């Protein structure tokens, strides 16, 4: 398993006159600094990272100075949703985030509306949404990926990492990746390749063999809530193009070491089984240039519904909030 960190890394900035621990410190790894410019930005401790160099350290020093003066960081939460589902399933969580001044968006995937030929069409939609926030608006983004969204989402990250962009003097970027019961598919492999055999809940759509459906979605996705709670979201489900589970990944967010990654394990999950979550995390440990933060909750596959406070709290920690 990857190294488990008890809480989100933070930075303490010290000088002879003051000791400041800002409320929002998302960019920095934990260390004590003797000056505002002598600290480690995400990715800068990697000598091979394109985010290293004097210019980067100067820009980061300016960012630290701004934080010291109390400037708030302006976040956007981008959610890459799971297969079969509507973005509406995230409405409750997004409302809670909005109440905490975190604007968010759940991306509607291309595979929900058209017969795509691979997961890459969904990746393109997620990438376009990220580029709009980052390239056009200069926003800092926390990318939240659930289930299949871990496959499509991680494939959309390369080049948009905050550390890589700040090294080039650009504003905005992805500051953290949060995976919730998500597929962690290595480069060159497919989602179905994560299973030793086809999962028993996955069946061909009898109306169109190019699509797949789920047997008993209540048990697979919502086994810790009542039927009444689950049914509205089940009713919104649509068949998923089988091609999205067979296409191979060509880029992953964790390989470069430029981004901190957090994984929320869901112990009652009957879709991405807990043993599969453990297996995938063991696999990425060898591919990652930085340790992961691992959290667990006693939830089904849909923690955003049954454990909304847990999910919201974890997103806030990914944003650098100091929470007990």
Task: Describe this protein's structure.
The structure is a single chain. This protein is α/β, with parallel strands linked by helices and 324 residues long. It has helices at residues 54-68, 91-99, 120-136, 149-154, 162-167, 217-221, 227-235, 243-246, 274-285, 303-306, 308-318, and strands at residues 12-14, 19-20, 32-33, 75-80, 104-107, 140-146, 173-180, 202-205, 208-214, 240-241, 261-266, 293-297. Strands 5-4-6-7-11-12 form a six-stranded parallel sheet, sandwiched between helices. Strands 2-1-3 form a three-stranded mixed sheet, with no helix packed on it. A three-stranded antiparallel sheet has the order 8-9-10. Helix 2 packs across helix 11 (308-318). The longest helix is centred in the middle third of the chain and has 17 residues, at 120-136. It is globular and about 55 Å long. Mean pLDDT is 82; it is low at 1-52 and 62-72.
